[in-house]
Specification:
It is built from 11 helices and 18 strands. The protein is α/β, with parallel strands linked by helices. Helix 2 crosses helix 4 (about 185-200), helix 4 crosses helix 5 and helix 7 (about 295-305) runs parallel beside helix 9 (about 330-340).
Length: about 425
Amino acid sequence: MSDEQPVRVAVLIVGAGKGSRASEETEGIPKQFFPIAGKPLFQWTVDAFGAVPEVDHIACVVPEHTESAWLPKLAPDTDSTGFSTVIGGPSRQLSVLNGLHHLAAYPEQWDVVLVHDAARPFVSTRIIKSVINLATRHGGCIAAVPVVDSLKQGDSGSNWDENIVCISGSIRRDGIYQAQTPQGFDFKKLLDAHGRALDDGHRDCSDDSVIFETYCGAVVIAAGDRNNWKVTEPDDFETARLLMDARQKSFSVPDIRVGHGYDVHAFEAGDKVILCGVTLPHERALKGHSDADVGLHALTDAVLGALADGDIGSHFPPSDPKWKAASSDQFLAYAIALAGQRQATITHLDVTLVCETPKIGPHREIMRDRIAEITELERERISVKATTSERLGFTGRKEGISAFATATLVFQGS
């Protein structure tokens, strides 16, 4: 394989069996399609591979007469990965061969193919990438973990009850590995090896690395993971559900978005200013189409910014006479309601007023109360601050007031 060309990687996820050992637990549904933590087992496995950028195509090998409702579908965030299904055969070996022929019919020239059990949904990105890398370099690779338990040879001889097995010897575990999937191979070599195995009368080999070793050469080992276990027995489903629930909680990243708002208004003749919904006596007023509440305008823009939905001017155009002298609390209340419609929870609002006059400190807590009233947020989630510009710029010259604001929103279902 050329180091200069990107490696084309296809994955066969094999789940064409009946899952008879788990049929009682799965109510007759093949185990690979049984729902766990909200998704079929097969889908969890597909999603694990779909999240790996190096994977170009996923082909699911499924049983004949599979119900369409059971079939896995790639999640929206992995729609750049090719996806297909193919009917398996009467044995795992023949199911893999069907999958290889299916992939060979594509115009793409696959460099590496990974073969993975549908019932191993906990496979990690690290394992997948490691197998791809070693299969690219060496032609054949499997994920495996060293055996850590003592190994015993059992003998259920005729002198023993059929439910009792006698230990007939011990097996040294040094250098012994427990094979897992994925197993990765040079695509053309594995396809050729499977064809030769079939020609030689082999039809029921459950390990592709054995076929590859027999007809192509050595296979190397990539470090597996003991979490990469295979759901097999009836009791495994409850364990898988608990683990998947825990994984979802552990890896669930909340969708938190922060919006920024800024506004400025100049002074004009008047006898009061309105800041953060509070009217303050002053020797001048703020000039604006509405009530010129620079604090609430900045907060409104911050909420709209977190929603990625324009700014206050796009929702309340200053050219519209409807908003002449309008109270700005309705602008902020509108943005808050819009966030609710988008299933977003506002967790924090922060506004900083920049001015030499009037003095904000004596009114800061009243402003917090007023914003809490408008937004129906707890007062503890609202911050009002004030600063001067050290007599620099238009605010320093007492020509107007500016405000900076941020809004933190958490979106549900993310």
